[in-house]
Amino acid sequence: MNIKNMLNLSMGSKLTGFTAGIIGIFAPIHAMLVVITLFITVDFILGLTVSMRIKKEPFCTQKAYWSVWKLIGAMICILLAYIADIYIFTFLSDHYLANFVASFVCGIEFWSILSYLSVLSDNPIFMLIRKLSKIEVEKKTGIDLSELDAIN
pTM for the complete prediction? Predict the structure, then answer.
């Protein structure tokens, strides 16, 4: 292919190539992005169910927008952490910062999911799992998680 033919490529071809390049860069963290999408989606569905069934609140599009922005924000944070892992923390072999950010997001969402499940089912197992999780996290991090209960 000569230079003249390369310059005559359509805009669609250029856009497709650019998109494929961006997707290729972030391919190693694809699974992380899928997992946080799953966690945030389940949290949104359960939160909506609790809101409509237990609290008798009508569907609010503002909550849906918040969940979409929460997902976008979480993805941006993971993408930025991944970029920092690649270009700044080159001495590390794995993507520790991206894994940490994804773990933090999933942990918070898991906490919220347990809270919603305990409200929806009245099953004490979810409260027990939540208490055991809280004890383990507080023991390993030294952080008091009582503020999370006030938020939910």
Answer: 0.72
